Amino acid sequence: MTSKTKSRAGRRGIGLPDALVELLKRHREAQAQERAAACEMWDEGDYVFTSPTGRPLNPSTDYHRWKKLLDRAGVPERRLHDARHTAATVLLLLGVPERTVMSVMGWASTAIAARYQHVVAAARRDVAVRVGDLIWKPNEGGGGASPAA
Can you give the residue ranges of every domain in the chain? Predict the structure, then answer.
């Protein structure tokens, strides 16, 4: 089944961590059991995540499951779309090159990256430590720090 996306970038290949691939394989096996149990009630739609009868998930149900997940994790209420901001920020923290981030996230302009990627306090602190380490190296003579030559 092919569906329309907002842009050409909406249909793209991405890399997945091995652990996620394993989880998706287990999900596919569980879904095959649901397909068998549903028999003729199964609605084949080529979706990865479905209702127990193969139909697409109801956005309202998805929303409520997201809220329960946040609650169980002790995370303040957030929109599901906020997870995209988190993913983009994680890629920034990992030092993934901007062009690669744009490809993974499906963005056509760097302006969108600036909107989604947030420089967090930990990143600013890391920069301060790295600059400090570059400028003030430990004194080889054993007595404190001195400016690097």
Answer: 81-138
